[in-house]
């Protein structure tokens, strides 16, 4: 039975992929300190959480396998799944009974909303959305108006603030774990030392040492032209089921477009006054909880990002990027599956013609 379970619960887009990559790359060093980062790969933890909360497309048995690994380790176990932050109260409440003899603590990484908003918008576009950045920002401001088409603004509002209101998330988890068992880590601003977030995380988790390997691959953001191209593409493949979009289309944004090396402008974002006010309220309420905070909360003040709105990227830039992406796919012989399918169709047609001829005789 694990003595202690540390849950890094998010928030989304707060450096979680970087931290998870560091944890995977340093499994042996962590074990040397008695800390287990379970699962064969990080995806095993994500699958286990989906199974735990009975997610529609979950992986049955994944939670029990991970739980058995946790129970078999006598010291500290560390899980890092950013989707923990938004799970329902009933699932949080059940955790202490699932691990009755284990001390459970949680770490919440928090980043300023000036970076979170365009970053989350980019993520929903990767996942198939055709919303513009302005539509997304409008949806965050308030609940949906009466003329809200297909509940778009309602969905944006509910989904974002469920995942990014740090004050409410901390208070909800504290109801079941105790505020003394939560730690907030402030994600450093742009320009800070590259390892500062990791050092703050190590302080929160009680990890020791100065020598740590770097992650193999991070979650690279895409820039303005790539996001504009993904929106165009999503318009054309609206008929694809979500699992198929994730399998076929999303890898373009995650794996291909960042590797092309084209000189794209960054995504520009001017923080509206209402978001500044909401951010100050969230941070002030978070500080009033008395939760342990590592880092300076002044770093959570939203700041503008220089760059270009993807809505303003001209067609010629999108075309150049699309041709480069198509060329990269062709170099990988991406058309081979179509060639095989076309051959199979022609064989079937020939066989059908032969059969018709036989029947005519």
User: What's the alpha carbon Rg, rounded to whole Å?
Assistant: 24 Å
CATH class bucket of one domain: Alpha Beta
Largest sheet: 6 strands, parallel
- Our measurement of the CA-to-CA distance between the termini, rounded to an integer number of angstroms, reads 76 Å
Q: In percent terms, what proportion of residues is strand?
A: 5-15%
Q: Which spans have pLDDT < 50 for at least 5 consecutive residues?
A: none
* Average pLDDT level: 91
CATH architectural grouping of one domain: 3-Layer(aba) Sandwich
Helix content: 40-55%
In CATH, what is the homologous superfamily of one domain? P-loop containing nucleotide triphosphate hydrolases
Q: How many individual β-strands? A: 6
CATH T-level topology of one domain: Rossmann fold
Instruction: Give the helices and strands as they follow along the chain.
Output: EHHEHHEHEHHHHEHHHHHEHH
* Class from helix and strand fractions: alpha/beta
Helix and strand topology:
Layout: E1 4-8, H1 16-25, H2 27-32, E2 35-36, H3 42-52, H4 62-72, E3 76-80, H5 89-98, E4 103-110, H6 113-126, H7 133-141, H8 152-164, H9 166-177, E5 182-186, H10 196-205, H11 224-236, H12 242-248, H13 250-256, H14 273-288, E6 292-294, H15 315-331, H16 336-360
Parallel strand pairs: 1-3, 1-4, 2-3, 4-5, 5-6
Helix pairs in contact: 3-4, 5-9, 7-8, 9-14, 11-15
């Amino acid at each position: 039975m694990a003595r202690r379970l540390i849950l890094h619960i998010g928030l989304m887009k707060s450096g979680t992929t970087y931290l998870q990559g560091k944890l995977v790359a340093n499994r042996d060093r962590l074990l040397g300190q008695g800390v287990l980062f379970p699962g064969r790969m990080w995806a095993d933890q994500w699958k286990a959480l989906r199974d735990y909360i009975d997610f529609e497309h979950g992986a049955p048995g994944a939670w029990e396998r991970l739980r058995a690994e946790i129970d078999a380790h006598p010291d500290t176990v560390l899980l890092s799944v950013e989707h923990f932050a938004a799970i329902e109260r009933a699932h949080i409440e059940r955790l202490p009974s699932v691990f009755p003899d284990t001390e459970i603590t949680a770490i919440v990484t928090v980043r300023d909303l000036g970076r979170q908003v365009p970053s989350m918008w980019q993520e929903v576009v990767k996942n198939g959305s055709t919303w513009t950045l302005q539509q997304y920002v409008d949806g965050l401001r308030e609940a949906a108006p009466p003329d809200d088409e297909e509940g778009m603004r309602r969905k944006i509002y509910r989904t974002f603030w469920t995942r990014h209101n740090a004050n409410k998330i901390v208070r909800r988890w504290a109801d079941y774990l105790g505020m003394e068992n939560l730690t907030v880590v402030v994600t450093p601003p742009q320009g800070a030392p590259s390892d500062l977030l990791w050092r703050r995380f190590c302080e929160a988790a009680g990890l020791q040492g100065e020598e740590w390997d770097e992650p193999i691959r991070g979650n690279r953001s895409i820039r303005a032209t790539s996001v504009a191209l993904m929106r165009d593409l999503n318009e054309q493949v609206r008929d694809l089921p979500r699992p198929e979009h994730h399998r076929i289309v999303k890898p373009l944004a995650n794996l291909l477009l960042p590797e092309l090396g084209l000189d794209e402008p960054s995504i520009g974002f001017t923080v509206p006054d209402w978001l500044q006010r909401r951010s100050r309220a969230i941070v002030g309420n978070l500080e009033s909880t008395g939760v342990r905070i590592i880092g300076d909360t002044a770093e959570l003040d939203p700041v503008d990002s220089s760059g270009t709105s993807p809505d303003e990227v001209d067609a010629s830039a999108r075309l150049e990027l699309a041709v480069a992406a198509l060329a990269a796919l062709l170099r990988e012989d991406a058309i081979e599956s179509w060639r095989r399918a076309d051959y199979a169709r022609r064989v079937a047609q020939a066989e059908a013609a032969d059969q018709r001829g036989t029947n005519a005789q």
